[in-house]
Amino acid sequence: MGAISITRVQILLLLELNLASAGITFPSKYFLRILQLQATHNPPPTFSPTLFRSRRKVLFFFPQISGSPFKGHSKNQNPICEFHRDLGTIKRAMLGAVQLGLLAACVVLFVPMGMAGWHLSRNKVLFFSGALFITLAVGVHLTPYFPSVSDFVTSVSSSSVNVVVDDRDSCVSLLHEIVWEVRPRVFDFDPMNNNSVNYEKSWSWKRSGSVESCEFQRLNRHDVSVLLNGSWVVVAGDSQARIFALSLLSLVLDSEGMESVKGSLFKRHSDYHTEVDEMGMVLDFMWAPYVTNLTSLVAGFKRNRVYPDLLVMGSGLWHMLHITNASDYGVSLGVLRSSVTSLLPVSSEFGNEESMAVRSPHLFWLGMPTLVNSMLNTAEKREKMTDLVREEYEREVKRSGMLRQFEGPLHLLDIGSLSWNCGIRCTDDGMHYDGVVYEAGVHVMLNALLIESHQKI
Predict the structure, then answer these.
(1) 323 and 178 in one domain?
(2) Pair (239, 266) in one structural domain
(3) For residue 158, is it within any domain?
(4) Last residue of a domain, one of 52, 85, 118
(5) CA-based, 20 to 30 A from 215: which of 126, 150, 290, 309?
(6) Are residues 182 and 264 located together in one domain of the fold?
């Protein structure tokens, strides 16, 4: 804290010296009084040399400083507020200083040039050399009164960054613009069997100008290996999350590897861990059927100070079936949101003084699928998991503020819209959909990662 205070005093004293050189006097006690008030009511943040360099002109036009000495103030008065009353005086003084500087520059520039032209008219090289030298000298002295080139470039680049951010956000909102083609199998269609296996499904992003401009990609095994190389991926939730994890693994494993995964990953109500040595990726599936389980998982990350690179979470179907209380579900989501928000930005602390910044995980929320009530396989499910109840649960997700579109920390993987557009030919039990639906969700996630990290593969 002592080093920070000294640095701020030095900055303000340098500011005083610069202003004094322009003919404007600001006693040091003003600055010390401001620092005292800031230390009492608003402790100063950590000093950032980069931030200071990018804002050095802001310090020069410090608006809270008066050009006249303090006359004293009562205990209910704020000296900083008193400074604002003299802002007009400061502006007029600054304008006068600039005008005086311009006048002096004209005298310094044109008088010597005229004299040089009078005496050196026969030597044009010497004349123009002298004129160039004088012009450069005047330019150096006038430079502090005008915005620097670096500030101009910074402002232009910041404007372009804003445009890029806007384009990135618009592309994220278009990630679920997916169309489906579902048609009967040509050779092995069984008219006596209406299961989803009788139908071939394929998907693609909608062919429209706005979607095509985003250049979404269906990534192959090599692309996914590059994108997720060395990553720790955690997928947590219910059976929907389990199928999602399987779809992700299908993009990085061969057929032999997938056969061994299916037997282990689909053990009932259990966790699963695997490592893909070829790309250094580690994937953990965490069985967490309730939101409270997800909250405990996030709390464990924070407690152990170990965070995944990619975290996909989703829960709701078990709560809908066994508790059937949308309001209670919303309360649990609020607690989860607070726990997740505490991870951002992530920092690891060492002792009492040292700290080291850690990259924040990429966070996704796996939405609930569309429920086809008539196809649910038990009477209890058909009674409790109705369209009306599902809408109430979806409403609580939006109200909780968990999703990015509502200023939350998690991107939505909208399995609800993907399953709805695929239709009833993509499910056998009205709840769990064919792998192609979750495959589309995986590609939505991967493209969101590309957009967030400004990458193209």
Answers:
(1) yes
(2) yes
(3) no
(4) 85
(5) 309
(6) yes
Between 262 and 26, the more confident residue is: 262
Mean pLDDT across 82-107: 62
- Domain stops at, among 38, 53, 85: 85
Verify that 31 and 138 share a domain, yes or no.
Answer: no
Q: Give residue 453's pLDDT band: very low, low, confident or very high (50, 70, 90).
A: confident
Task: Note the pLDDT of residue 330.
Answer: 98
- Identify the residue with better confidence: 268 or 414: 414
Number of structural domains (the chain) is 3
297 or 136, which is more confident: 297
SS (H, E, C) the chain: CHHHHHHHHHHHHHHHHHHHHCCCCCCHHHHHHHHHHHHHHCCCCCCCHHHHHHCHHHHHCCCCCCCCCCCCCCCCCCHHHHHHCCHHHHHHHHHHHHHHHHHHHHHHHHHHHHHHHHHCCCCHHHHHHHHHHHHHHHHHHHHHHCCCHHHHHHHHHHHHHHHHHHHHHHHHHCCCCEEEEEEECCCCCCCCCCCHHHEEEEEEECCCHHHHHHCCCCCCHHHHHHHCCCCEEEEEECHHHHHHHHHHHHCCCCHHHHHHHHHHHCCCCCCEEEEECCCCEEEEEEECCCHHHHHHHHHHHHHHCCCCCEEEEECCHHHHHHCCCHHHHHHHHHHHHHHHHCCCCCEEEECCCEEEECCCCEEEEECCCCCCHHHCCCHHHHHHCCHHHHHHHHHHHHHCCCEHHHCCCEEEECHHHHHHHHCHHHECCCCCECHHHHHHHHHHHHHHHHHHCCCCC
